[in-house]
From TrEMBL:
It comes from marine metagenome. It is found in: Cell membrane. GO terms for biological process: lipopolysaccharide biosynthetic process. This is EamA domain-containing protein. It is a multi-pass membrane protein. Its main location: membrane. It holds the Pfam family EamA. SUPFAM superfamilies: Multidrug resistance efflux transporter EmrE (SSF103481). PANTHER family: 4-AMINO-4-DEOXY-L-ARABINOSE-PHOSPHOUNDECAPRENOL FLIPPASE SUBUNIT ARNF-RELATED (PTHR30561:SF9), SMR FAMILY PROTON-DEPENDENT DRUG EFFLUX TRANSPORTER SUGE (PTHR30561). Keywords: Cell inner membrane, Cell membrane, Lipid A biosynthesis, Lipid biosynthesis, Lipid metabolism, Lipopolysaccharide biosynthesis, Membrane, Transmembrane, Transmembrane helix. GO terms for molecular function: transmembrane transporter activity. Coiled coil: none annotated. Gene3D superfamilies: 1.10.3730.20.
Amino acid sequence: MTWLPFLLVLLSGLAHASWNILLKRSSNQEIFVWLLQVSITILAAPLGIILIVAQGIEYPGWWFVLGTSIIHVLYFLFLSRSYMHADLSLVYPLARGIGPILVPILGVTLLGEEVTTVTVLGIMTIVAGIFIVYWLGRVSYIASDPVAFFKNRGIHYAMLTGCAIAGYSVWDKLGVQYVNPLLYMYLLALGTAIGLMP
């Protein structure tokens, strides 16, 4: 493995965590995610227009664009509301941990994919790392009042966020078979911006 892919993955992870930190700190989380999608839509408009004119979209592709836009609207709403009710250190690991658990299950049951032993071990390692970070330092708090912990609305929204992550991961795998991935991402941002409009 060369250093470049590793560096890109690392930078991607840092960028993702960074905008989540900004989202948590914002005074209005739902407006923040809407403005984020609007900004992406405006900045990427030249590329989006070029791709849609040059390549177009086959009929099934529009259904996938519509579907992913709806799922991403739900994702951003759930994520925003989870940060309204709970800390970043609680929400982020939980939401990100649920996705990798559900994706292979959905892949096998809905898409008929096969999961190798190595893949399962890799997923388990990642998920274990996420949840170790998540539970570390919270065991006594959760044990002292587990009912209050699981009644926390932030926990509920974080779990729904994780389900949305799994949903768009599987949906988008199919979607990019019909739409150029870059165009797909652009239309996703556009559709999400429209769906989140105040």
